[in-house]
Input
Amino acid sequence: MVLVFSCLIPGTEAAAKGAAVGLFTYIASFGATWLPLPWLYPAEINPIKTRQKANALSTCSNWLFNFLIVMITPIMISNIGWATYLFFAVVNACFLPVIYYTYPETKRRSLEEIDIIFAKGWLQQGREEEVVVGGWGFWKGDRYVRAARELPLLTDEEVEVEARKQGIVKDGDGGEGLRVRSVRVEEGKELVVEKF
Output
């Protein structure tokens, strides 16, 4: 987006070609990286109980914001021209710290490990100081991201022990009738472990 708006400032034909290259580069990189995020990430980080609702909410918000952008972009281009792309570049840049501090890394983790990460993050919230900003209470720190960084990759046995420690699974809960499917990826191979 920075390339697009900076090429549109001079208003020449050669600069417009540079803007087209910047726009196509942005669209290609966005489509290959961030575009599938509303469908993939909620399914990874939510427990089975809330996974459908979280996916529905993320898909709905994705469509609503896409609709908003499609409706306001022509108006912005006709009124403020190249500054439209500056606006979108600034909005995208503002999301970088939000993503870095609030989205835990899920690479090579099973769904059960994700549950443990969020349980640890939730339990840490009571131990932190509350920060009040403009009447709103916020908790200091990046609990879930920190929990994901501190928690090593776990084996299936360690997942079970940690789940009991965090209170996700109670002692004596054998999970009768419950089938848990754990998928781990190691060195390019996908190992599937099923427990009953």
In short: The chain has a mean pLDDT of 77. The longest strand covers residues 180-186.
